[in-house]
Amino acid sequence: MKKSKKTDYKSLSVEELNKKLKDFKMEHFNLRFQQIANQLENPARFRFVKKEIARVFTELNKKNRVAGL
Hints:
Elements: H1 6-10, H2 14-36, H3 43-68
Helix pairs in contact: 2-3
């Protein structure tokens, strides 16, 4: 998977962002199990997924803040 940029998330709807969040959380869950079983091939992917989750949360919060005002 190529590295996403913040601008990629600005054009997505809330539903699409929630789907991405769900996908990243599932991947994070699977990576944790791989790490426990010493089967993690790419440890940098673990950090990347955590940062992507934070980026999606940030964009969701921005959209929710705008919708709430």
